[in-house]
């Protein structure tokens, strides 16, 4: 328990540091977003409008850094991430909350499936090494080295077209309104199949490889021989003795990859124009939309930290050696 | 002599297949009698552990049994060949008839499961009908038997010392009351005090429960004290087999006397220690004739050309041309 509290306070500190950096960095970037906006409107803004934009964006030159920092925290704690420049005057929090479910569902589900599938196959390949499963290894090595966005481009090129079942871009049919009804959900699933497959194929191989290698390492441990000598069934030795120990590094890898769900598949979302957080971030970058970028980075930071914490908790539960006495 | 429990007949074990194969065990025949402690000694690489793994079919790949029989005599019923059992029969045979205490005291327990889980899963595998309460009771009983407080049941392996872990392993080995316990260097990883404590306990348990022991070690002085008979292995063969006292008094094979000369005796007068010159043979390129002849101080004419066979001399047997002539 003490260890757990230590970890939590460590992550709170890291979160504070990350948020502070998140506050400072955009303020150190040269250039002025209001000027960018003025140029965008090609001088059609009055000087009064420009002044109010500075105040709205919180770029008030009169306030000092510390006051800005305090008010930034106040805003954060009330869930206010500022207003987006590109979708002005939509609040950033609203944009993120509309794109977050897309990413969470698409990448979240595929990450979980990929982990479960890859680990399962890895256990099999590691336990039955020397059999036909070894033939899969070169394939998985190849697939794990292919960048997933490239796989996505190939998939779009080969599998989509006017008559194809697979749509080439977007998250749902253009004519539909997002709602939980019988028209929208099948369309959303249909649109997510190809990006999901792309992520799955390129990420599952990594799980297979790492799990197989751990299985092979663990298989030569003394306690595996003991388990065989005890006359336990092959299944029990494979699962409860070999896989249970081989799983440990994979679990922390899995928890970390959960953290990258939010920001990690930027490129797939760009390739498929999928309305998720990554695509949003891409658009924000193109438009110098600092509040939106800041907001997305914040979400990514927090999710990575939460995932790290989950990894620690999972390790505490799975490996008794990490538990401190008392 | 009492009836046999395990008879190993002409066992051959190779590592690898075809021309690349290394012959780790060559034509070994050995008999373990009911209630006796049979010591198996030899340098590293002489095939002691391979013999133990081979007779229980636990050889890690690429180990292959290429010939021979291991006849097991159960307490009731007809003897059968362990090497021809089906997988299912083999699972039932293991631990219930022959249990093993391995050399790695530190790594023999699964680090992620409690001691209790590892003690009771043997019971569950061999007797699925046993209730959970009686399984736990049995596990507690075994811990008490080896001198560990039963409240350590819920401990994880890393919370126990090396000696305690090895005692847990001994308790685990005895949990199904096997006829034979194979001890593969059970105390090598432990300090000398712990060694004697555990061996003393083992002797006591054996007298109480009456199982037979195959005790594998390179520490011949330990064997002289604890075993009834000793078999000395060299280069994958048994070169001498005799009652412990007889080997200690006058070893017939020059290798046995060399081994004896390289250890200080636990008791008795002081004497100068001598070693065996040279190093153990490479199993890939065994010397012709008697594999010990390049290192043997007494080697003579037939040694380098003809392989000596293990031949009985009274209650002992030896494979050496010196004795034949």
From TrEMBL, chain A:
SUPFAM superfamilies the record matches: MetI-like
UniProt subcellular location: Cell membrane; Membrane
Domain ABC transmembrane type-1, first and last residues per copy: 100-311
Membrane topology: Multi-pass membrane protein
Record bears the keyword DNA damage: no
Keyword list, A-Z: Membrane, Transmembrane, Transmembrane helix, Transport
Family: Belongs to the binding-protein-dependent transport system permease family.
Name of the featured protein: ABC transporter permease
Source organism of this protein record: Actinoplanes flavus
Automatic annotation (TrEMBL), chain B:
Keyword annotations of the record: ATP-binding, Nucleotide-binding, Transport
Record InterPro entries: AAA+_ATPase, ABC_transporter-like_ATP-bd, ABC_transporter-like_CS, Oligopep_ABC_C, P-loop_NTPase
Keyword Nucleotide-binding part of the UniProt annotation: yes
Gene3D superfamilies to which the protein is assigned, alphabetical: P-loop containing nucleotide triphosphate hydrolases
GO molecular function: ATP binding
Domain ABC transporter: 8-260
Pfam families recorded: ABC_tran, oligo_HPY
Name this protein carries in UniProt: ABC transporter ATP-binding protein
Native source species: Actinoplanes flavus
